[in-house]
Every structure is written in structure tokens, then in C-alpha cells.
Amino acid sequence: MMLTKKDFETDQQVRWCPGCGDYAILATVQKLMPELGIERHNTVFISGIGCSSRFPYYMNTYGMHSIHGRAPAIATGLKATRPELSVWVVTGDGDSLSIGGNHTIHMLRRNVDLKILLFNNRIYGLTKGQYSPTSELGKQTKSTPFGSIDAPLQPARVALGAGGSFVARSVDVEPAHLLATLRRAAAHKGSAFVEILQNCNVFNDGAFEAITDRAQKAQTQLRVEHGKPWVFSEGKKGIRLNAKLQPEVFDIAGPDDLAQAIVHDEKSELLGWILANLGPPDFPTALGVFRAVDRPAFDALINEQEQQVRASKGAGNLEKLLSGNETWTVS
Questions:
Q1: Which residues make Cβ contacts (< 8 Å) with residue 258, sequence separation at least 6?
Q2: Contact, 173 vs 303, CB < 8 A?
Q3: What is the pLDDT of residue 331?
Q4: Which domain holds residue 168?
Q5: Is residue 219 part of a domain?
Q6: What CATH number has the domain bearing residue 66?
Q7: pLDDT score for 314
Q8: Structural contact between residues 48 and 75, judged by C-beta atoms closer than 8 angstroms
Q9: How high is the pLDDT of residue 323?
Q10: What pLDDT shows up at residue 322?
Q11: Strands, E, within the chain: which ranges?
């Protein structure tokens, strides 16, 4: 039987603030699921704590609303023991980059075959508007009334620095782009990390307005695709590397100028890093797949290792392990 978007909707009342960007992300994910051809009982959504972490309630699949920052650890355990499952991690900038930062980087370096959706609204929404690890320098919030003095983390930079094999960025209100990005992430074998810029219209309204405003976004978005030049502003501007190998914006008047633009290569670690660092006031914000490379997935390796051990030594003996030579009794 062919599944539809409606098959992935639950009977639960969706409890986000009216106008929250999470609604658009949920609708896009539910639209994607039937395309994957994976049965609902073989799909799992695991979240931590935060507004975004209510996601499993609204997906008619298996799911777990877990504990703060620990979704990557729980998802890793599930994928390692049930490799046939399609496992998704839904998290926020506070959940995954603050208390859960350590779990996030080790999930990425291990390259566990998980699909990670990080909703970045640059604020703690569930706890009513405190600054988060991604809040801008000088951001005034309930916990930083005189402005944040912390340098913000950039999620894509964290993912690339941890060795993420698939790192991408999209926006909540660009459904076609988000769907295409999630489609790519779903097909990737390994940790697929997607940062989704998302508006919190109650505690941080307009955080990404320059990127999403129809009158500005042609000048403020750089949409990258593998094998295509880095151009924006309706093809009138491009980004090239200068003599110091630093990116710079230049005007495009003709084909000769276009040839100067960087051509995107998803396998280039350098280009991925440059994209993650682009942003206002001097550059547009990059959207798309920054890096996508193939390397062995942790869950596949661990299961292969287990099979090798079983083939060479047979089934393990738990009693022998517990009472072996490296145990002792305290009297």
C-alpha cells in the first residue's frame, strides 16, 4: 500500500505557538516520509528537550521524547542494535549545542547512520526566552538583559569540525528547498546533519528576516549546488577567492566574470568550511548541502565487528565474562 502524508500525521493536537516555524518543518517532513518507501514501524523519531522536541508526538511512527541533550546517545544505541531502522534525531540549538554538545560531536565523528534535524532559532523558547549557544553577540534576553557577551556557536561549523560526513542548511519557510535538502539527507549513509533556520515569533521574532524576506532574499541567500558556481543576487554577484585565499564578493557583468566564481564541490572540506563561515554583514547566508562524503558508518562497522567475533569465537558466555580472571571479591 502506498503511504501518503496523512498516514504520518497523528491524532495529537499540535502544541506549538501559532505562527511557529516548527509547523512548516513538520509538514515538510511528513510530506517527505512517503517518498522514502520505509514502513512506519521501521521509522523512529527521537528528540531531547525543547519546543522542537515535541516532534515525535506528531509523527505517526515510533518515537521517543527523551532527556535534555541525550537524543544522540539514545539514537546511537538504537541504530547500533537495530540497523534496519530509519532513525531521525530532532533537536534545537540549546538542546544539541549546550547540554548535549558533547553527544552531538561524538555522534558526528562516529558517523552513526542518523538523520539529524537541528532547529536553530537562536533562543531558548520552551523556557521562555533566554539566550542560547547560537544567540548573536550583544543579544538582549531575559538572561542577558545587558546583552550576551558569549561568542555564538555556528552549528554548521561545529558539524564540520566534528568530521560530519553530510552537513547542510535550509530554512523553515522555504519548503521546496527544505524538502530537497531533507531528501538528500535521507539518502545519505552516515550522520546527515541539517541545520534548519527557524523563527520563534514569540521570543525571537525576525531572527532570520533578512534571509526570508521576499524583497531581500535574492541578495541575502547564497544557494549552493554541487558543480555550480557560487552566485546570488539573481546572478549579478558572485563569490571568489582572492590572492590570500579569502572569499570576496564581486560583480558579474558577463561570462568572463562568471568564470571567476567558486564552483561548489561537496567533497571539498575547505569549501564547506568557507560556506559555514559566510554571513552578514559582508556576505549572504549559504543554504544547501555544504559537504557530502562517503565514509563507513559506525553502526555498520560495529555490527560487522560483532559478526566477525561470533564467527571466530562463537557465542559469548556472560557467566564466564562476569567470573573471569579480572574480577575479585571484596571481603
A1: 229, 231, 235, 238, 252
A2: no
A3: 73
A4: 5-214+266-292
A5: no
A6: 3.40.50.970
A7: 65
A8: no
A9: 76
A10: 75
A11: 43-47, 62-65, 86-92, 115-120, 166-171, 192-197, 221-224, 231-232, 237-241, 247-251, 285-292
Reading the block at residue 245, the C-alpha cell is 585565499
Sheet with 231-232, edge to edge strand ranges: 231-232, 237-241, 247-251
pLDDT for the residue numbered 315: 66
Q: Is residue 298 assigned to a domain?
A: no
For 221, the 3-state DSSP assignment is: strand
CB 222 within 8 A of CB 232: yes
Q: Which positions ≥6 away from 174 have C-beta within 8 Å?
A: 212, 287
74: which 3 cell numbers?
539514545
CA 88 – CA 8 distance, rounded (Å): 14
Nearest CA-CA partner of 239 in 251, 255, 227, 225: 251
Instruction: Report CA-CA distances (Å) from 182 to 77, 110, 116, 227, 245.
Output: 23, 21, 10, 19, 31
Are residues 90 and 55 in contact, defined by beta-carbon separation less than 8 angstroms? yes
Place of cell 566564481: 261
CA angle 328, 330, 331 (to 5 degrees): 130
Stretches in the chain below the pLDDT threshold 50: none
Residue 299 maps to a domain: no
Amino acid symbol at 298:
F
How many domains is the chain built from?
1
Q: Is 44 helix (H, G, I), strand (E, B) or coil?
A: strand
